[in-house]
Write a structure and sequence with these properties.
By secondary structure, the protein is mainly β. The protein has one domain: Sandwich (Jelly Rolls). Helix content is about 5%, strand content about 50%. It is built from one helix and 21 strands. The strands form four sheets. Strands 1, 13, 14, 15, 16, 17, 18 and 19 form an eight-stranded antiparallel β-sheet that branches. InterPro entries: Pirin, Pirin_C_dom, Pirin_N_dom, RmlC-like_jellyroll, RmlC_Cupin_sf. It holds the Pfam family Pirin. Belongs to the pirin family. Its cofactor is Fe cation.
């Protein structure tokens, strides 16, 4: 799943607020045509655009739907597909064909450029799609794909946390990461305290069930300085976090770059069929890129 908006907006950011806790409301975004599946996009938001290197978060379902995202390009990021229910078939220009199911991770590193498609049958879909911005020294790495059918679990009183990306409480995911970060699904059953890295900023998103202090929809932001977060109830929570991302980026459509000219060049290459390879086996045409805005895109920081 990716950004299918026909008029994607530039990410504009500024200085941090230093707030102890922020509730980041999502906006509903339809993916596709008349029978589009609706997602709630909490990153990038109206104020806060990133949490660590995490720069995009779409949550969807549970909803009876069929996903069909035509081949489209990416640069300068990693895509993270995590499901609560359903399954999604991934194809990419490396020749990958991989289905992902709940509890499994599909991780695609775009680097300089890759294209992919995503499909699912008519079924109940429930999950999240996230992007991780690559830092400057790694943003042109060779494109790659990883599938991790099993991931390590950190167990504590009242919870079990599947570590999807990075590290949590000394437990590390085997997935490739290019900045200090964490991504985990926390199954809460009772009450306890999940350890946090105080150097990280974090975000919490309720996936299902009832967990104290969280509601379905918004993403709760926690600034650096916390060594743990208390959880109680029964449900599943997505935890993301990382060291505050110090670089300014340009994020437009499905590209992450560093300047307007770079983004324009990526768009031109995609529209001319260059630089991103071809996705074999998808029954349909690639997704055309939207028209660039009339003003120049500017690199920005992580908050508005």
């Amino acid at each position: 799943m990716s950004n299918l908006e026909l008029d994607p907006q530039e990410i504009r950011c500024g200085s941090d607020t230093g707030a102890d806790r922020e509730v980041l409301e999502g906006r509903d975004v339809p993916l596709g045509g008349p029978r589009a599946m609706s997602v709630s996009r909490t990153l990038p938001g109206a104020h806060r655009r990133m949490i660590g290197a995490w720069c995009f978060l779409d949550a969807y379902g549970p909803e009876q739907s069929a996903m069909r995202v035509p081949p489209h390009p990416h640069t300068g990021l990693q895509t993270v597909t995590w499901l609560v229910e359903g399954d999604v078939l991934h194809r990419d220009s490396l020749g990958t064909l991989q289905r992902v199911r709940p509890g499994q991770l599909n991780l695609m590193t775009a680097g300089r450029g890759i294209s992919h498609s995503e499909e699912s049958p008519e079924t109940v879909l429930h999950g999240v799609q996230l992007w991780v911005a690559l830092p400057g020294e790694h943003r042109h790495v060779a494109p790659a794909f990883e599938h991790h059918p099993a991931l390590p679990v950190l167990e504590g009183s009242g919870y079990a946390a599947t570590v999807v990306m990075g590290s949590l409480g000394g437990v590390s995911s085997p997935a490739s990461a290019y900045t200090p970060l964490v991504g985990a699904e926390i199954a809460v059953d009772g009450q306890g305290e999940v350890p946090l890295d105080p150097a990280f900023e974090h975000g919490l998103l309720l996936l299902d069930g009832e967990v104290a202090g969280l509601e379905r929809g918004p993403l709760v932001y926690l600034p650096p300085g916390r060594s743990g977060v208390r959880v109680s109830g029964r449900g599943r929570v997505l935890l993301i976090g990382g060291e505050p991302f110090g670089e300014e980026i340009v994020m437009w459509w499905n590209f992450v770059g560093r300047s307007h000219d770079e983004i324009a060049a990526y768009r031109k290459e995609w529209m001319e069929g260059e630089g991103f390879g071809a996705v074999e086996g998808f029954d349909g045409a690639p997704l055309p890129a939207p028209v660039l805005p009339g003003t120049r895109l500017k690199p920005r920081g992580r908050v508005r």
